Amino acid sequence: MSAAYADISKTPLCELDVSDPLRFENDTWQPLFERLRAESPVHYQADSPAGPFWSISRFEDIVEIEKNTEVFSSEPTIAIVDPPPDRRSPMFIAMDQPEHDVQRRAVQPVVAPKNLQEFEALIRKRSGEALDALPEGETFDWVELVSRNLTTQMLATLFDFPWELRHKLSEWSDAVTSDERMTAGQGLTRDERIEVIMEILEVFTRLWHQRKDDGVESFDLIRLLQRDPHTANMVDDPKNYVGNLMLLIVGGNDTTRNSMSGGVLFLNENPEQFQRVKDDHSLISAMVSEIIRYQTPLSHMRRTLTRDVEFRGQQMKAGDKVVLWYCSANRDASVIENADAFQIDRQSVRNHASFGFGIHRCMGNRLAEMQLRVVWEEALKRFSDIKLMAPPTRLCHNFVRGYSAMPVQVTRLSNG
Ligand code: HEM
């Protein structure tokens, strides 16, 4: 790692690129955000690969901005980079009211409490099968065999997607978030991404027509869109259809996958916490929230100013980009006590920024928590240890915070 990343204490903030994806890959992002929270909580950066933008790094400021959707709009997009204007795919995460609510309402039933109850048994069965199949006494990649495997199965269920093709869903999820401007050039080019988006549209248009009026009583995301009068013809608006598909594919996939891997890392880094949960499985629910906070699977969301405004003494202009750094909010000690520590028994353990706030607060948050809880319940029934064998490989990405590899060995309980 170069000295420029190792120690930034003497570098003026105006010389640092807050959005630099390498800082997430080499895990040196924290000192920068600590300085931003202390010295420049509403920070303007005049130039970056994504153009000029404001950085909001304190918890309470992010909450306040998310409440004010008239001034801080989610349109045209919610990540730091802009899609080319002719390539925008409207999706409800990137819509303001009233259209946002209309489209969210159509698919929300997929995560209704009754559905979650039914999913739980299925998730438990699949988690057990995946964990039973893990090799013992040899190093394997937890990301591949557990996290990616299980979250892809879940996503296939949400879409009632052809089972044998389910690997496509996680490949697509990786591809559509892999913008070269967010990955220090490591991602796909614009044309490569367009090719993937066209493939998604083609496959899902076929599925739409196969399902239309087939009379099947299912709560999968495609049939839910077909059933709601406001979205019943969404297939005729291919940009909006593929936009929402991308939202649901990415939303339900990378985030949970990276939390499932992050947990293994944090428990290995904090062996006393690992021992506590091994001794007392009733701590698993709280631990899951702490993992999601500590991981912060999406490092930011972005808003765009609809008009000039003064915020915390700074003059912001219509059209400015405002980046809400959830990873920083989750380490804000003015709201979260001892915020840099991984502590599985916090008092207000769900009081974190990872799911966002306000009208766009994550639609799948209860599903994600349940899936992670069940995986850990099943894992701790079977294993006395899940040992990290080498440092994980982190994504070079300023939006998705996660891992491409997590080498581990498991030891089975004698009665597991
Ligand atoms: C640990 C796992 C997850 C994390 C950390 C996460 C994080 C987020 C965040 C930060 C937002 C935007 C919030 C905002 O702008 O205020 C969001 C929105 C969303 N998430 Fe998740 N998510 C997770 C799992 C899921 C799952 C499993 C689904 C699948 C159903 C899902 C579906 C969505 C959708 C549809 C939205 C858009 C909501 C809206 O705009 O109204 N997410 N998520």
TrEMBL record:
The keyword Iron is assigned to this record: yes
Q: Does the keyword Iron apply?
A: yes
- Keyword terms, alphabetized: Heme, Iron, Metal-binding, Monooxygenase, Oxidoreductase
Cofactor(s) essential for the protein: heme
List the InterPro entries: Cyt_P450, Cyt_P450_CS, Cyt_P450_sf
Q: Where are the transmembrane segments?
A: none
**PANTHER family per record:** CYTOCHROME P450 YJIB-RELATED, P450, PUTATIVE (EUROFUNG)-RELATED
Give the family this protein belongs to, as stated in its UniProt record.
Answer: Belongs to the cytochrome P450 family.
The identity of this protein, by name, is Cytochrome P450
What is the organism of origin for this protein? Answer: Candidatus Paraluminiphilus aquimaris
